[in-house]
Queue: 2 jobs
Job 1
Amino acid sequence: MNKSMILAIALLMTLSMGASAAAENTQEFRMDQVFKSEAGTCHYNLYVPDDYDGSKPYALHIALPGWEGLYFQGVGEDLRWEYLPFESRNYVDDMIVVAAQLNDWGETSARQAVALTEFFLSEYNIDPDRVFITGYSGGGETLSRVMELKPEFYTAALFVSSQWDGDPQPLVVARTPLYLFTAEHDSYYGSEPVSRAYQRIHDLYAEAGLTEEEIDSLRKSRNMFVAVRNEPKRTGEITRLYQASGLRSGRVKDGAQVAAGDVPNFIRAGALFSSSCSAL
């Protein structure tokens, strides 16, 4: 069984709750937009707030999809399976959301994501201090390659339940804030790849001459936060975390069956998208 088939099965298990809930408000997106660049053609779904008129800068969120949200799965499948393109708007009102429907999680898709970011930075009035990028599962692999290519484009990056494929050295040079998040028993990756990525980035900062105290200070400050967060195993604790995050009623029910590897997007999003980036 190849990686694609395994990943598809794993996501069906861990995201069994997500398909219906994440589909709400998809009508607010301009579906199946097409962007062509030297890196090739990519598709994306676009949310622009009604009050955007270009007179003032807005934040930008680039969301990179996992397996279920790739373009060949169907237009808008990323919005049906993933929460972050919706949840991020609960933290930043004046934000444009670009839900990219890439073709894979490799180098070409990473270059397309960078080109798409560059397009929005040039064609829309974007606040350069509020450019966020997220990658879930296969999208995290893409994000790691984006951080190798153009980490300086992004104010902060959220890497969720994935593995790091790119070279982290450019990210360390740029000191782009990075939040690494996984479940201890993630049903596909496990937590070990994220732990290794954390250690590699830590070591690169040490090689750059930072002391342990300075690395720890960066990790706890607004300017840098690198950590692995392991989710509770018990369903009840996960449900409680959903509710504690300010989840609107009806999105998760008490006693909902959540797979041990599932990570609530709502907890992650709060860390990245608070308007002051206080968690970073």
Job 2
Amino acid sequence: MKIFQKLLILFLVIINISSINYFCKVFAAFADYSDEQAAEDTNKLIEEQKKEEPSIGKSTNNYLEYLEVEGYELTPNFDKQTLEYIVREKIKSEEITIKAKTDDDKAKVEGIGTLKIEQGKEEYRIDVTAESGTVRTYIIKIGNDETISKENSEKNTDIENINSNNLENPNTENVQTEEDKRNNNIIIYTALSIVIALVAIVVIRTKKQNKGKH
């Protein structure tokens, strides 16, 4: 029985040493993170939130009430939730007139009016800025069916390349998963070692008490 107790204690010591080493590495990483760095990062986060946070009491409505290209049809039909449109017809002049009205009178719109068609330029941005400063961008694409088909073909090629890269590197997402499993196993072993140690202490004390009674 004494041999069993010694082996049990040795087993617990080995497990606890491994666990202690792991937690020492974790705490060492936190130790390298100084108070100055923590304060600096906190201030940066606060500043970023202030920039993104809309002004209190100001309207955040940055939708358009309507959008059109004079003399041409937009595809699909205008909907303020839809951000991209196409003019499929061939433009007959060197200029286009984009008309739009904001859904909120306090919002501002840029990119409208009579615009000269630039060679090689197929997209026109209409930026709507709400009173609070948030911006929503609508896009009008100018091009015939051939241009649009070419654009869709390029997008499909990009998607195929992404899928191909994922197939060539199938284990990329599994690296973190394996590390998480090891960390979880260490935590489980630590908890088990503590439970076993407590059980061993109770058993040893009980036996001593029984011997004392005899």
